Amino acid sequence: MTVAEIQEVEVDGRTVAYREAGSGPAVLLIHGWPTSSYLWRDAIAAIGKRNRAIAIDLPGFGGSDKPLQTRYGFELFEGAIDGLLERLEVERVGLAVHDLGGPVGVHWALRNRGRVTKLALLNTLVYPEFSPAVQQFLHMCTDPELREQLTSPEGLEAGMRLGLADQERLTEESLAAVREPFQTTDARRALADAGIGLDPAGFVEIAEHLSELQIPVMVIYGEQDRILPDVAETMARVKRDLPQAEVTSLPDAGHFCQEEAGVQIGRQLAEFFGPE
Questions:
Q1: pLDDT digit string (tens) for 228-271?
Q2: Taking the model in full, what pTM does it have?
Q3: 1 inside domain
Q4: Domain membership of residue 200 as a residue range
Q5: Which of 106, 173, 215, 260 has the most crowded CB, counting CB atoms within 10 A?
Q6: Of residues 122, 100, 76, 91, the one with CA closest to residue 235
Q7: Where are the strands (E) in the chain, listed by range?
Q8: For position 172, which CATH number holds?
């Protein structure tokens, strides 16, 4: 399967990279840590058959700039989203979000309600009550020695393998795509910074206002998630807050569900986001 080519725009003097496929209603795909738009490669092909699928590389990830001495907070990430959509002349957009991209995308959606048509949540965190697994990740990103281990080539491989139900699904190409953006010490430091910059107050805001979203919602998650082991509880809470949500769990997929079921997920999202 051909992977959509990486493209670039300039936003506030910094490069924001993205991939794009297809035409129709616009859908923005937002990845998490430590991945990039490449994670959506199988899904974007399917989504692009019915939609204009746009997968962003958030600042600090993939082909986008990785500044240091910068807070990787909601403001930085949402500025990149705003800038990319402006450059691509997209006003209304559907959102599909994963991992760190979940709180980023949902926070943006709550502040841009008139622009968001539909929302899809994949394995992600949403609420301010962080699990022990997330708290341990935040500690590792903060501690200098653990941070270097976590963001090293070996650490990235270990994280990707942990995030799959079947580790054999991690190909050399996929692993290379995760490692390649983080070959320098500065890039790896930016990656760690990007994992800890979201203000807890933003998660509180999400929890307080999520139930106000009136748009169609889809939830798809891999059940064998060892990175966010409380994902089933999170998605059950989402369903309580958003009763309109359609929930699909994938019993044979892990945290990086797009690696293990990308085509299936793409087809499901294409149907969800496509023209009525």
A1: 999 999 999 999 999 999 999 999 999 999 999 999 999 999 99
A2: 0.97
A3: no
A4: 6-273
A5: 106
A6: 122
A7: 6-11, 14-21, 26-30, 52-56, 93-99, 116-124, 217-224, 246-254
A8: 3.40.50.1820
